[in-house]
């Protein structure tokens, strides 16, 4: 994994746990602290997914084994089991990503990773009000606050990179779509793509190049 991609993921996963005051004032945060925050986030996602899966499996099994099984009950139980499988897959993916982090660090320059991750985090924290205002303006019937927290942060990271860190807008959009493939779902990926294209168009007064579909 390239250093900037790893930086982007570390910033994304640790944003919710970094102290706002420290980041805004430019105080140093150890790379190890960011890794720990990222692992905690992924671990929490994995636990939540497994708990949801266990609950759906239990409910589905009880419905299937009930003495008054009907077609409606069977269909409902099958849907619960399908959801349980989805939750389990998400939990496994979260756990896999947490396990990957130490290995990924061996492939990247630690100073470069830390520097760019902190640049992203500081840019998001310092300019969060302006970033959120822009995103809300182009949400088309939605509010940023209605999106899952991880989707909100993916959008913020992309705007921070393209607006404050000099990354070309099409590159920032594509990077955000890649993050969404790992940390969101298909609906979230499509929404993130569309919102960022409109945001760039709003900022630049022109069309953004096509992002990954």
SSE topology sketch:
Layout: H1 3-14, H2 20-24, H3 31-65, H4 71-105, H5 110-126, H6 128-137, H7 149-164, H8 169-183, H9 186-204
Helix pairs in contact: 1-3, 1-5, 1-7, 3-4, 5-7, 6-7, 7-8, 7-9, 8-9
Write up this protein.
The relative contact order is 0.12. The chain is mainly alpha-helical and 213 residues long. The protein is globular and about 60 Å long. The two termini are 21 Å apart. The chain is built from 9 helices and no strands. It folds into 2 domains: 1-121; 127-213, NusB-like (N-utilizing Substance Protein B Homolog, Chain A). Mean pLDDT is 78; it is low at 206-212.
How does the helix and strand content classify structurally? Answer: mainly alpha
DSSP, total strands: 0
Oligomer: single chain
Count up the domains: 2
How many helical stretches? 9
Order of helices and strands: HHHHHHHHH
Query: How large, in whole angstroms, is the Cα Rg?
Result: 20 Å
């Amino acid at each position: 994994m390239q250093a900037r991609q790893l930086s982007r993921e570390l910033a994304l996963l640790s944003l919710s746990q970094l102290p706002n005051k420290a980041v805004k004032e430019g105080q140093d945060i150890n790379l190890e602290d960011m890794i720990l925050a990222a692992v905690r986030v992924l671990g929490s996602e994995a636990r939540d997914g497994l708990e949801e899966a266990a609950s759906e499996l239990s409910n589905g099994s009880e419905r299937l084994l009930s003495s008054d099984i009907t077609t409606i009950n069977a269909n409902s139980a099958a849907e619960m089991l399908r959801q349980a499988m989805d939750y389990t897959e998400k939990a496994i993916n979260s756990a896999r990503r947490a396990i990957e982090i130490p290995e990924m660090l061996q492939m990247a320059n630690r100073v470069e990773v830390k520097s760019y991750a902190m640049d992203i985090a500081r840019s998001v924290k310092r300019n969060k009000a302006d970033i959120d205002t822009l995103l809300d303006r182009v949400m088309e019937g939605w509010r940023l606050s209605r999106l899952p927290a991880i989707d909100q942060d993916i959008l913020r990271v992309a705007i921070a990179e393209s607006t404050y860190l000099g990354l070309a807008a099409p590159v920032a959009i594509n990077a955000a779509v890649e993050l969404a493939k790992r940390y969101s779902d298909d609906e979230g990926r499509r929404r993130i793509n569309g919102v960022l294209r409109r945001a760039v168009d709003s900022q630049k007064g022109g069309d953004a190049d096509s992002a990954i579909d």
